[in-house]
Amino acid sequence: MKLSTRGRYGVRAMLELALNNGKGPVPLRDLALRQEISAKYLEQLLIPLKGAGLVKSVRGARGGYQLALEPAKISLYDIVRSLEGPLAPVECVQDANYCERVGGCTVHLVWGEMGRLLVDYLSSMTLADMVARQHEKDRMCQPSSPGLAVAQ
Predict the structure, then answer these.
(1) Is the residue at 108 inside a domain?
(2) Where residue 124 sits, what CATH number does that domain have?
(3) Which of 31, 61, 95, 111 has its CA 20 to 30 A from that of 136?
(4) Does residue 149 form part of some domain?
(5) What is the pLDDT of residues 18-44, one digit of tens each?
(6) Residue 67 forms beta bridges with which residues?
(7) Host domain of residue 22
């Protein structure tokens, strides 16, 4: 299974909102600039995320977008599912009527297990986990002394 730009950019945008959680709404323009995503495209991604109850918008001069839930309550699966739909690696896993061989097909079982592993992994990873990873990455990339850079 290959995630589309919707899923990839959506996770990036949600991580940005999680990194700014508690600091007030992030204007769409700022979010787009920080993540190098077109504001128009980003807005299209935020609509289903808002519909899924993952983000909320705030109107006005100091408006923008913010998480609707705490980062620990939003899994990567929640984000990707709201943007990509079902995460089945092949059609027959998503729709048993798609293929008449499903009942006796060993390969179908493998694809089904692969899909479950993907869903389980994405469900276990929250935005809070991603924020912690980002902070660790940032800490590791800090120069240890002036003028010296740490390899990334």
Answers:
(1) yes
(2) 1.10.10.10
(3) 31
(4) no
(5) 999 999 999 999 999 999 999 999 999
(6) 55
(7) 5-140
